[in-house]
User: Fold these one by one.
Assistant:
Number 1:
Amino acid sequence: MCGIISYIGPRDATEIVVSGLKKLEYRGYDSFGFVVKNNSDFKIAKKVGRVSEATADGLGLPKSNIAVGHTRWATHGGVTEANAHPHVSNNGKIVVVHNGIIENFQDQKKFLELQGFKFYSQTDTEIIPNTIEYHMRKYDFVEACKRSLKHLDGQYALVIIHKDENKIIAIRKEAPLVIGVGEGEFFVASDVPAFLDYTKKVIFLNEMDMAVIDTAITIFNAKKDTYVERNITNIDWDAEQAKKGNFEHFFMKEVSEQASTLEGVANIDNGLIREVADEIRNAEGIFFVACGTASYACMHGVYIFAKIAKMHINFCLAHEFPNFNHFLTPKSLVIALSQSGETADTLIAMRAAKAAGAKVISITNAMGSTAMRESDKTILTRAGPEICVLSTKAYTSQLAILTLLAYELAGKLEEGKEKLKDVVRYIYYLTSENTRKFIQEIAKNLRYTPHMYLIGRGLQYPTALEATLKIKEVSYIHAEGFAGGELKHGVIALIEHGTPCIVFTSTETETEIISNAMELKARGGYIIGVGPNNNPAFDVWIKVRESEEANSICQIIPMQILAYQLAILRGCDPDKPRNLAKSVTVK
Ligand code: F6R
């Protein structure tokens, strides 16, 4: 949700931020902007639309040693050039880019207007450079930035530069910002892939850290009101992993990587799984919390823990957790799932748990993310950078980790690992060119349908919900997922002649789900079966062999491919669907 990249150092900063911002486009793509510090002048370029086609020359940006870029996902103010970042102070000397929301911006704007400041955009961000300018009437740039923080309520990752200073100021509060450390050069970005081509050494800023970066870096923590030291961490991601390679879209690249990402989970350190399983055993009152796709992984967790570990775990959408968090005690455990580790709603739920004295475990894909830093223990999904806005490979890794935890709780970790290893071989087939072509043919039949319904039972119910989300968010076809048993309670009224219905089956649920498929077919439904056995109820069958507890991992893969093919056939961008952004860092 809004991407920031900036650079200070001996290389051409302009080129670095223009190419770096393209790597962050998944974070927001309404509009973008750059500021380049050219001696003691600024050159600013802002545009509505996507940064992918932009070039430094095309934007008229000169070479420089300090540059900042921003790609926007609009919160306050429409998608216009005036609202695009960077925003400049009234005296033209201070420039700010911002990811987050300043909740008290209206009050601060009134205060600044009384001091004679004028505003040219509808954004909350514009108060920031002007608040700094206001403080610079008395203080130097760094001190003015520090003092300005006292006026800002809300969440923010900020990069600030001043016309007369050769430095970058980077500040984070409840929004991601990492510093890449090179040889005599620094990068500041919302996410590591923006600078992976140059360095794998990173400093993760803590809450209320303000980094002042010139030829070196000093970090002041505004909460502690003191200068602090932060460690440098080596990231084990590879620059190539964050590129499309031979694929046209990150979506299909990431879907195709699932055999190897799941192999990574199958080989995960037993010690960590055992430690987390012990926390689960010892807790009294356990909640899974997450949003979106990760929430469907949680639902899957509820089923798989019940089935394998014979344990009941509560599940709550992270943003609904305030309705239930009064049940937390110091003996409770919250297990938060988040690909990015930066989803604001999930972090808020984690903080509620901490406030109640409960323990928090995160399952996240992002090393050094806020979720990781704010939890007692973390299992990294190690799926590598997920650049497509839609979560695919991180989801199946989450399912696989939950499966291993359930097996460990049942005292059968090795059996769980063997099951995963076996599935890995099959996933090579599921993601192969043959499967993709077969699914493409099915997609051709579905491309004009306005509605689609998906059903599953037991472990396949969350699969139906996740498949539904994939189809909706990337092809914009209305799709709804239901538990098979719900059909007769109302849903079946929606079925008309030719309505596509996708039915997930397994040996365990076959009898009941096939009778649901028959009910749909009797009302004219066009039935697509996904599972181990063909059936006369099916108009089309997508064979996915029986993998028992790992069925959900296998069955979602053809659905990810279907969503992708539908997007392509309907002319939609599979990597950057409309209105979405990866990493939802606002409430
Ligand atoms: C859907 C999708 C989103 C995310 C959700 C949570 O494809 O990607 O629904 O799953 O925004 O994000 P994380 O997992 O980063 O907390």
Number 2:
Amino acid sequence: MKLNNLYTLGGISALSILGACSSAKEEKPLNIIYIMTDDHTQQAMGCYGYDYANTPNLDRIANEGVIFTNSYVANSLSGPSRACMLTGKHSHANGFTNNIDSYFDGSQQTFPKLLQNAGYQTAIIGKWHLHSVPTGFDHWEILNGQGEYFNPQFITNGDTTVCDGYVTNLITDKSIAWLEENKDNEKPFCLLVHHKAIHRNWMADTCNLDAYEDVVFPLPDNFYDDYEGRVAAKEQEMDIKTNDMDLIYDLKMYRPGLESRLRQNYITDDGKHGLYGTMNEEQRKVWDAHYTPIINDFYASNLKGKELAEWKYQRYMKDYMKTVKSLDDNVGRLLAYLEENDLLENTLIVYTSDQGFYMGEHGWFDKRFMYNESFSTPLIMRMPNGYERRGEISDLVQNIDYAPTFLDIAGADIPEDIQGKSMLPILKSENNTMERKALYYHFYEYPAEHAVKKHYGIYDGRYKLIHFYDDIDVWELYDRATDPKEMTNLYNNPEYKDIIIKLKQELKELQIEYNDPILEQYPL
Ligand code: SGN
Ligand code: CA
């Protein structure tokens, strides 16, 4: 018997049939597949209008559903984003503010637990990164920490096992295996597929190494940003042009005897080369056959200055996009499984990332800032039967909205203390809106790698007001209608005085609504 085919008739979801003759309560709730990648950004997806990105399977999700053009995170970093997503609450409320010393309190309320109470079977496979043991899942199989690209360790029920293969394939294999094992279960399911890709240092599967080698990527026009009027932006350490982006670790220009600045990533505890330590001989052979001529050319050409900076940008883009290729292929594999098993029409498929990423804008890689490329995150959904909404959705949405949305879809109550809002109304009809004036953001991880200072801010769909605090006290204002690349800080421009007063008032209201204690430290 196929998974849930009790509820399907000849591939047509019973939802639509039941919908005509029974109340919503009697309908079988939808299955949910939530695919979250790591550091995948809108600028690396064809469906977001970036033609150099060949992502047919992701584009299919968007084409058969909806694409959010104003999708954001609450705190642009892995662990914090995951905690926001699971709880539907901002970082100060769920307790996981940063990757360094936060620990997720697994006894707190999360949407998987509430879905279990509502009769769902739940599972998570892939990156977890919250340090505590997952709770609220009938099945979990997680990567150890950030996980490795090749032959990674997975942890389940206290056992750590090395699995042979490339991480994106393995996470997909395990996800499909779980679906297959549970296909006779009468409960609806919620499966979280959490990929490691495309996290630094962007290592592609060996079968995809040739992809994108011939593509010349367009250099962002603010690649040589001088950060005038933006102190925090000037002091970051995520610059492609400098040693922040390492030639050996990030761009794989390794030769025996060469040292990487990022030594901690370079030699593993057992003395193996950190970059390639987990690869087997066969993987290493294919890898070396690809990179050796590139390495030889690079050292022979002795590039300097702008030439070197732009070469680094091109290599970064190539490695990143090659890594996306495997992700897209594997999303295709999962879609094919669902299709073959009559599950497409009774499953909501959500694709997102833990945050966006800089692809050379402002000269950067990494994330953290409330500036657009890393504050935003991709969000596309394939719509099942009964959900008529299609195309672009421009409402302001944030990753704290996922939990209440899934609970709403399941027909479960949304607890009062959840801070996000359900997206179900806008998924149902284009006549509905999110009824939200502005979004709140707060980033905490400083001092830390990449040196992005602590900041919080508000975005109302046009204006963005940010306060960088702690060891500085600097405000920034952007008008995204006239300055979408956020290059001109208008905070000290007298013409914007009234707008600033209004935004500060709204920021204060959000801090009160969400109960962020930062308001006591920096009263507005
Ligand atoms: C690692 C990376 C950083 C990255 C953080 C957080 N360095 O520390 O570049 O910002 O993860 O990323 S590395 O040298 O180890 O690659 S997150 O997505 O997990 O938050
Ligand atoms: Ca991430």
